[in-house]
Design a protein that fits this description.
The protein contains 2 helices and 5 strands, in the order E-E-E-H-E-E-H. It is of the alpha+beta class and 104 residues long. The protein has one domain: OB fold (Dihydrolipoamide Acetyltransferase, E2P) (Beta Barrel). The protein has a 5-stranded mixed barrel with strand order 1-2-3-5-4. The longest helix has 10 residues, at 89-98. The N and C termini lie far apart (52 Å). The relative contact order is 0.21.
Length: 104
């Protein structure tokens, strides 16, 4: 008898999409810098150096081309930000279909 029993009802689960709160901006990861830092092209037209806070660093794996949700810093808001959420490809498509995310 296997240690892990077969899963009968696997597949895609329905999750609520996290919509941006006031002060949060969509962005696309353009370049990985190392040390949980990356260059993100934001929807407001600015490139920011973003970091993944330690709270979500081990749970979220971000790669180039991913759609992320960022919060600009209060001090250097035009240059630096924190990543608070990463969207999967399916979630990004749902945001486009709902009209929340503008298609370029």
């Amino acid at each position: 008898m296997p240690y892990y029993p077969a899963r009968k009802h696997g597949g895609q689960k329905e999750f609520r999409l996290r919509s941006p709160r006031p002060g949060e901006i969509f962005g696309i990861v353009r370049e990985m810098k190392g040390g949980a830092r990356m260059i993100v092209e934001c929807m407001d037209g600015k490139d920011r150096l973003c970091r993944i806070p330690g709270k979500i660093k081990s749970r979220v794996w971000v790669k180039e081309g991913d759609l992320v949700l960022i919060v600009p810093w209060t001090v250097e808001s035009d240059e630096k930000a924190d990543i608070v959420y990463r969207y999967t490809a399916l979630q990004a498509q749902q945001l486009r279909n709902q009209g929340i995310l503008k298609v370029d």
